[in-house]
Specification:
By secondary structure, chain A is mainly alpha-helical. Chain A is built from 3 helices and 3 strands; from the N terminus they run H-H-E-H-E-E. Chain A has helices spanning 15-24, 31-52, 83-87, and strands at 72-73, 93-94, 97-100. The radius of gyration of chain A is 23 Å and the shape is flat. In chain B, the strands form 3 sheets. In chain B, strands 3-6-7-10-1-11-12-13-14 form a 9-stranded mixed β-sheet, covered by helices on one side. A 3-stranded antiparallel β-sheet of chain B has the order 5-4-15, with no helix packed on it. The chains are: A mainly alpha (108), B alpha+beta (475). Chains A and B meet through strand 1, helix 3 and strand 3 of A and strand 2, helix 1, strand 8 and strand 9 of B.
Chain lengths: 108, 475
Amino acid sequence: MDQSTPADDDAVITTADVAKVASLARLRLEPDELDRFTHQLADILGHAADIEALDLDDVEPMARPVPLENVLRADVPGPTFDRDAVLSQAPAAEDGQFRVPPVLGEAP
Amino acid sequence: MTVAGVDEERWEVVIGLEVHAELSTRTKLFSAATNEFGGEPNTHIDALTLGLPGSLPVLNEHAVELAIRVGLALNCEVRRSVFARKNYFYPDQPKNYQISQFDLPINAEGWLELPSGQIAGIERAHLEEDTGKSTHVGGGGRIHDAQYSLVDLNRAGVPLLEIVGKPDLRSPDEARAYVSELRAVLVAVGASDGKMEEGSMRVDCNVSVRPRGAEEFGTRCEIKNINSLRSLGRAIEYEAARQVDLITAGDRVVQETRHWNEEDGRTHTLRSKEGADDYRYFPDPDLVVLDPDPEWIERVRAALPPLPAARRAVLVDRLGATREQAALLVERELDALCLATVEAGAEPVRTLTHAEHNLSDDRARDLDPAAFASLVSMELDGELTATQAKTVLAELVEHGGDPVAIAADKGFEAMDSSELDSLVDGLIADHPDEWQRFCEGDGKITGFFVGKVMKATQGKADGKVVTGLLNARKG
């Protein structure tokens, strides 16, 4: 892509990548922000690449840092909200439902 | 195996199904809000359903148990799994992400045996939360012309099991058989009520075509909005024919999601399918790893009820049922009755035939096996004709009772053969023209004579015996 400028010589991420992710996340970035975040993200990914370079064959993959598994809840109903109280906080409501602007496509 | 509108000498249709089943829990997957079908809109919602700041998900133990039951029933490996966020913006999902499982699903690599004996691969069956429901207002309810949408979040957060099948199916019949078998399994293990019409079981269908003999798959389209087994078959036929037409015309199939329209019987383009990475999946930091204890898994396995495939196998092995009979009888929940009836001394073949043809009434499941067995014996001993046996059986289903008493009550007695002999002789004498035709080999005239005998004996004669008498006189 024409507008993509590498963050540094061996770039792992380009401004085009960041622009794409920003648009998926519905973030509007100014050009200077795009540059700044591309550099910051490149640093973070560079750090990940450093770790990747290590021999970690003997290390268990870790999904999260806290050694905690199987936190479960019994299937017992709890309180629910009062509908009118909830809908009074919504920008618009109709027939007990949230009223939202027309959506362009079907949900994924 | 036929696909209407597709030249099957040249083309092969490849089908893979993704089935979403709502799990029969009392509460949602990650919160204690009630999981209930129907009800006033937005009455089953809490902080998590609304995605309010500070709300945190906690996994429902029963949903996990149901997922394990299905996984085991589908011969999957139950694994250590991780929940991930699937990010997208849509008003039926206030958090702006759906919690699902991505690279580490709870169940993987299984298979489902269809009544035909075909084995269909299961890639994975993972847990995820359902979304809310939007109704499009204005523009005749059509999504593209809507003026606004109304959102009901009752369904948001309801536990779903997404069962991803491998592209092992090759025809609408196979696809339908797969879905009904999967539904039977889900219902048998108590995981879901499997009601397609209420949306508690939803089927998305991936269809592609390739020249017969080709190794590589063609480009596939995903079809949504399939609400019944019938529309599943119709949608596949339409879509396969559409793709073949495109390719034959020198065009190409574009990978996309298409919407099945029941009224015009076509699929319509919805949106180009986004690549998986567009959802920016990442492990949900609010949830911990799920790694079910092997003892828990074994307890679940031990408590599984007999599954449809195993029940069919019993009918085939023990009673000598055909595949078709076994499929039908298990579907109608008549397998236990047949086994008990044979156990009570009935001859298996006749028992199965009656169950197949004469017991479509739901109440037949409650038949007394001893009474059914004695009816079968009476028929085989020549005390009842096939027609009489059918009548007595219907009476047994309707009111119960003793087949001997019912037969006596209806005046069913074995006909004296000499009585039949003279009757047949009389008929031949009275109808020389018809007899002439019978003797010349006109098979259709047989029914004329049998009918006359039946009328004269009020149905007590055995049709096969009468035919035998006629043939004997033909010489």
